[in-house]
Fold this sequence. Notes:
The protein is mainly alpha-helical. Helix content is 75%, strand content 0%. The chain is built from five helices and no strands.
Amino acid sequence: MLSIPFMFYAEINYPSKVNFNSIMAIIYLGLFPTAIAFQLRFHIISKAGPIFLSYVAYLIPVFAIIWGYIFLNEKINLEIMLGVILILLGVFISQKKPSKIISE
Length: 104
């Protein structure tokens, strides 16, 4: 609701031009990154459960660091590596099955 006045201002001063490329971009964004991601998400929930999917969400920063290093030549320093280790350690501990306590 707060954005509506700004939308009218922007459209009046800088009108949008709808063309084939913009329509194809919207269709692509709707089909590939959105629809396929949701289908994959629901498939993982049905196979592994919602708890597993919540743990997988913690790995997003790790993959962002990897892709940033590969594609954007970003530097990885000691703090980043410590963060990645803590994330992986947390996911490992949360996925570990509790050991049976032997009572004597």
